[in-house]
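Data card: per-record layout.
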Amino acid sequence: MHISPLIVQTIDEPKGVLNMQKGLQAITGKMDINKDLIFLLVIGGLYSLGIFLSNTFVNIYLWKQAGDYVTIAVYNLGVYIFQPITFILAGKIAKKVDRIIVLRLGVIFLSLFFLSVLIIGEHSAKYNFILGSLLGIGFGFYWLAYNVLTFEITEPETRDFFNGFLGVLQSFGGMVGPLAAGVIISKMTDNIGYTTIFAISFTMFIFAVICSFFLNRRKAEGSFYFRHILSERHRNRNWKKILHAHTFQGLREGIFLFVITIWVFISTKSEFSLGVFNLCLSGFSFVFYFIATKFIKPSRRKKAILTGGLILFGAIFIILFYKSYLFLILYATLVGIAYPIINVPYASLTYDVIGKANQAKELRVEYIVVRELFVNIGRVFSILVFLLSLFFFSTKIIPVLLVVFGSGHLFVYLFTKNVFLKQSDEKKVLLKEQMADEKNR
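The structure for this 441-residue chain is written out next.
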């Protein structure tokens, strides 16, 4: 349903939002928490709940139909090929129209993905690449808009808080979503449980679209200078190091996002046990995002990234040698602790590098697009290596691949440790004014 922007602008700010704003300001002290920041957090929370409820189990749904790693890998390959392509397209659109529209396009395509899975049903494995491509398009539109809006709505002093609180919401979705899905699937016969959770996710994204109408409209002007920002890495050392870090981040994410899920299901033969696994992982993330937000200050960012990277890498060896469910839960616990310690400082450092880069105000969209391109280059590369390794060496090669690609976040530290942001007081004031300018557009 189309709602006129003029009508949306006359809608009073919901009392719930005002109460939430007061509550968040009570937590953060004097920090400015505006309406747009709150709605962006709400949309992020709905997205996380919808994705965590179903996306984990799409891999299992396909595995139960096909029973092989290749089908799952090709599905994920479709996601990570079309996600960066859509990022570039979304970046061009975001320079021409309201970026809120780009956000809605992402949510609509995500809704279409789950609707397609509902319609295709038991034949989904035959259309694995097409379904992955549809999901990748949804991710591309959504995350381009969400990342750009995050850059515009947050300021350096609110960025750590926003990333931390978003992490809390994502962890909450990660706790509630998979566990609820596991209960629903285990209690219902045949594939009725899967149909139910996919339908619920579809509804979550509809609510996210509705929330987007409460965000202030934000338009960007000018042309899309993708190649210029891509080549900026040759002139800006900090930008080059951040891009290399994101490539190695993608190397780990490419195969870990589905291999571990399959391992847990093979080990337990139970969707409910997979839900409990994700509950433990996200439960510890929920707690440690609060801790990371409070204690990881800018001066501690690099040490935190190293600490989290070491925990993440060390956790791999637990499940390589001991594949019992108990050790899988221990692995989930360590990963749940490690990710907040890495993500809060890493995300903030990335946005700070972009914020201080050449023409950051005018070309912020291009910076976000290029960053995501490098993340997905890493993801696609690791999945292609995974598929080739299965072809030549069979599934026995998987533990070796987990160790090799599992070291990704250690390389993230090696690149970010040499990122230095030195500015004069005058430049700091100028940047702050520019970001405030964008926030109030």
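Known properties of this structure: The chain has one domain: 34-439. Residues 1-12, 424-441 have pLDDT under 50 and may be disordered.

See the next section for split statistics.
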